[in-house]
């Protein structure tokens, strides 16, 4: 049985014990006493809370007062710890998510983060010009926080609030034609030409490209091996080096052996590992007309409008499908694990649509000639068949005349 009480304090003047502060309740979970402040001076309200707690304990729904004290910071620390333990490659993105989540939820307890508050956060982010895809990534991080808190022993949260997801209308669909790739590669510096050639022909992510080392290439067999720790999906892959890609790597290898023999990285700049192509990429794209910086009124600053390195990944998947490579093999080369992503990258361009329109037009022209001849023939046949049928059917019921039939008296009055 639980109890309701108020804490007592001795009066320094009269030395008598007097009740001070709000009501407290005491109940038991598996024989262990739990004391909790009701934060109210109303005894009936305290009694109601005690019955509620005892009912939750009896149903196995109450997780203890620690759940009530769990904060946003506690859950955020769980995600950071999980990323560090599993050595996730996107650890740096935690700071980007918390930069927007913390000012809104940072001072809240977990029990106060409800669906309505999440919707209020979405409206605020949209008012600041954030895209739906960006907001979804932040909400996914928030949902991961609650999931880890729910899986703790003892649990840090008793429930996971419903966190809505927005429809994403900013899904990129850019790709490169071969002429665009050649012109862009020619405008890039030599150290960047190797990276874009690997990305264009293999569909590798730029992070995977920049992590490649010379020891991963078997020049005798013409193979490039990607280790599991170097891929986003932690799945090893093999890439065969042929044609233009093999020539680019072979030429770059001979040059590196002369100038930077101690450098282990394939993609480097002066012997230092290449981390990003952002500056040289944009400069080359502007030179060949594949992009430029434009003013974004919603964000109040200039943003990049044009090709991005990840377009090579979409292009590689599309090219493999066009070349007749089986989809399962193409997925193994590009490193896709889910078919939904693979299908999204298999996009078409205006040339594909133009070819489809021409093929459809040619089909209709052939069908128009065939249908016209067929209808004419059908009309001629229908006329002849109908006339023959009418004559034949009439002959069945008409009796041929064999003389003059004698007159009959009919109804004749007789005198």
Notes on the structure:
With 415 residues, the chain is an alpha+beta fold. Helices cover 51% and strands 13% of the residues. It has 15 helices and 10 strands. The chain has helices at 43-59, 65-69, 72-85, 93-105, 115-127, 132-151, 178-187, 190-202, 206-210, 243-259, 278-288, 311-322, 327-334, 339-345, 350-397, and strands at 3-10, 17-29, 32-37, 217-218, 223-226, 237-240, 268-269, 272-273, 291-296, 301-306. Strands 1-2-3 form a 3-stranded antiparallel β-sheet. Strands 4-5-6 form a 3-stranded antiparallel β-sheet, with no helix packed on it. It has a two-stranded antiparallel ribbon with strand order 7-8. The relative contact order is 0.06. The model has no long low-confidence stretch (mean pLDDT 83).
Number of helices: 15
Helix fraction?
Answer: 40-55%
N-to-C order of helices and strands: EEEHHHHHHHHHEEEHEEHEEHHHH
Global morphology: elongated
As a whole number of angstroms, the C-alpha radius of gyration is 40 Å
Main structural class = alpha+beta
Q: What is the averaged pLDDT score?
A: 83
């Amino acid at each position: 049985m639980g109890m309701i009480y108020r804490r007592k304090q001795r009066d320094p003047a009269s030395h008598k014990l007097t009740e001070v502060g709000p009501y407290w309740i005491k109940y038991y979970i598996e024989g262990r006493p739990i004391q909790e402040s009701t934060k109210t001076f109303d005894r009936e309200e305290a009694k109601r809370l005690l019955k509620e707690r005892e009912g939750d304990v009896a149903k196995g729904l109450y997780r203890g007062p620690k759940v009530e004290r769990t904060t946003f910071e506690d859950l955020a620390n769980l995600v950071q710890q999980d990323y560090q333990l599993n050595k996730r490659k996107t650890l740096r993105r935690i700071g980007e998510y918390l930069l927007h989540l913390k000012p809104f939820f940072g001072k809240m307890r977990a029990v106060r983060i409800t669906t309505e508050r999440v919707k209020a956060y979405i409206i605020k982010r949209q008012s600041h010009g954030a895209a739906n895809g960006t907001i979804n990534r932040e909400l996914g991080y928030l949902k991961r926080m609650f999931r880890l808190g729910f899986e703790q022993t003892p649990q840090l949260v008793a429930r996971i609030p419903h966190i809505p997801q927005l429809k994403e209308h900013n899904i990129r669909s850019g790709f490169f034609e071969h002429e665009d790739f050649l012109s862009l590669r020619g405008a890039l510096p030599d150290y960047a030409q190797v990276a874009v050639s690997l990305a264009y022909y293999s569909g590798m992510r730029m992070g995977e490209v920049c992590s490649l080392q010379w020891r991963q290439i078997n020049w005798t067999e013409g193979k490039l091996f990607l280790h599991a720790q170097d891929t986003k999906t932690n799945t090893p892959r093999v890439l065969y080096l042929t044609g233009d890609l093999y020539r680019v790597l072979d030429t770059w290898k001979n040059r590196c052996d002369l100038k930077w023999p101690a450098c282990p990285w394939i993609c480097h700049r002066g012997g230092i590992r290449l981390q990003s192509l952002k500056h040289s990429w944009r400069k080359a794209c502007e030179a060949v007309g594949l992009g430029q910086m434009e003013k974004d009124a919603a964000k109040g600053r200039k943003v990049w409008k044009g090709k991005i390195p990840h377009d090579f990944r979409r292009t590689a998947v599309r090219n493999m499908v066009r070349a007749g490579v089986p989809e399962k093999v193409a997925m193994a080369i590009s490193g896709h694990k889910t078919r939904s992503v693979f299908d999204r990258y298999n996009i078409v361009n205006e040339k594909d649509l133009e070819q489809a329109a021409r093929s459809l037009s040619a089909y209709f022209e052939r069908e128009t000639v065939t249908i016209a001849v067929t209808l004419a023939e059908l009309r001629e046949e229908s006329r002849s068949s109908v006339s023959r049928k009418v004559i034949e059917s009439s002959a069945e019921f008409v009796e041929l005349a064999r003389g003059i039939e004698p007159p009959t008296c009919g109804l004749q009055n007789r005198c």
